[in-house]
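Data deposition worksheet. Section B asks for the primary sequence of the deposited chain exactly as it was used as input, without tags or linkers unless they were present during the calculation. Section C holds the resulting structure in token form. Section D is free text for depositor observations; keep each observation to a single sentence. Incomplete worksheets are returned to the depositor.
Section A, Depositor: J.P.
Section B:
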Amino acid sequence: YQITILVDDIAGNIYVDSTTIQVDNEGLDINSRGFTDIDLGVNFLYPWDWPEPTYIVSEDGSSETQISNVDGTITIYVNAYDAASSEDLLNTAYSYLDGINEVAYDPANEEAVTIWGYDGTIIPYAFTLDGELHVGALLSIYVPDLQTGFLVDLDATEALSDQGQAVFDTLIGSLNFFAP
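Section C:
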């Protein structure tokens, strides 16, 4: 890669300089690409052939990032919340799930996880949409360094549940947090 910088100062002088950067892509997973939100401080991998993320801002000012496969049968949702603790965020996760029509989940099926030293909970769930069963997994994870809680959700039609689980596993395995 070659990077070129052009500087035009207030006196009208123009300076141009460039440098070459070598990137070693050895071992790069060509089936995945990275999602990064520099405002929230989160990144992860998702399938390369999926369209760009969509950002949705609600009337209350909250926002959600959605990333779906081309036909919308597998979707990732990313939400960030101000939270005081993992327990507070887990209650927010239950409220989030309760907002889905015809949702079914059982706290007994939750799975405790640790990602980069942060404790989280994965809640499996299911719901019916237009007569079609969808299955999903919701990660609730509080990152005290960022004073932010994240709900990372993936749902898929039942027919694509194995593929959806593989996408979720890749997402969880690559999930990273950083200071915005």
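Section D:
The longest strand covers residues 118-129.
Residues 134 and 157 are 4 Å apart (CA to CA).
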